[in-house]
Amino acid sequence: MSERSIKQRRAKVANRENESSYTVHKIGLTDAWNYFITAKVGEGIRKRTQDDYSSTWRYFTEWLFEAGYKVRYVNEVTSTMCREYIRYLTEEAPRYKNHKYMDGDYGKGLATATINMRIRNLKVAFNFWRAENMVRINPMDNIKCQKDDIDKIESFTDEQIEALLNACDQRTYVGFRDYVFQICLLDTGMRMNELLSITPESIDVKTRCIHLGAEFNKNRRYRVVPISQETLKLLFELIDENKQHFPQAKRIFLSCYGEEVRDTQMNKRLKYYGDITGVGKEIRSTAHTWRHTFARNFILNGGDPYTLMRILGHSSIHMTRRYVQMTDGDVRIKHLEYSPLRKLKKKIR
User: Is 148 among the domain residues?
Assistant: First the structure.
């Protein structure tokens, strides 16, 4: 037997001995969570991430109580409990439970993306407690995220885009604001919170770009987003409106009372236009759908994927690929235009 394999075996034995002598500090569920979230806030996580962590733990501990598990300390949570919880989320959990805007029965079983978010959040928490000697092992270690169809994301057609834009009553302040907002989404592919965060100072007139500070970006990286001349003109028209009615306001997109518009408010407005036009029955009318629409049309119009990656603010081309969803019609048109046989036929003729 080689010296290398002997050393590896000795290392494994030593690990098992360390594992058996591992001392766990018994910490209650609430105290353990407060300790975890305090540490994460100290690391500088965003408020939204903090809320996601907190809601995940609240849902999980509520389920433990409802399922009859008498768990007092965080180290008493087992892999069996976690797997049973994931099964519950997949098959039995009511959709939109206790949602302040969604009433009624929407069926059971949460979306795969929601379940995976909770799995990842629980993994992070138990990894932290493992490092802090609060649990002997991470009960989420062998639980993997669910597989999801990454190629099902749709985008607006040209007809749907025209319908949504024409539905905005530009004779009113809110209608014009919503029109400019959707134009910006179509022209830049920006995220909802990124676009709502911009101020007049964010716009560079000379280079026709919007400068996004790192504090407003999802990946915390400073980014420059180019805009068209038409979009620039509309933004300054809206800024002039704001100066007349709300001279103290700092942001560009405001409510009819001059207050900063929240993402929940704007989501309602986008959904409203989807409802009154009928587009909402065919596809979700959200800022994320506009983002996918921008990405798809950017590529169809001749843009390259690496430039698109920079504009969207992605850290990898793999993520950008998920945003470029071609329809069957797009594929047929491109095939007709670029098929090798088409070129060969021209030579034969």
Answer: no
Integer Cα distance of 31 and 121 in angstroms = 17
d(CA 214, CA 220): 4
Domain range for 245 is 158-337
Output the domain CATH number for residue 243: 1.10.443.10
Question: Where are the alpha helices (H) located in the chain, listed in sequence order?
Answer: 3-20, 29-42, 47-66, 79-91, 112-131, 158-166, 173-188, 192-196, 229-245, 263-277, 287-300, 305-312, 317-323, 328-338, 340-348
Contact predicate 223/217, CB 8 Å: yes
Q: What average pLDDT does range 56-60 have in this prediction?
A: 94
Contacts of residue 98, defined as CB under 8 A and 6 or more positions apart, other chains included, come to: none
CATH code of residue 123: 1.10.150.130
pLDDT over 90 at 61, yes or no: yes
Query: Could you tell me if 116 and 219 lie in one domain?
Result: no
The answer to whether residue 175 sits within a structural domain is yes
pLDDT of 292 above 70: yes
Question: Is the pLDDT at 349 greater than 90, yes or no?
Answer: no
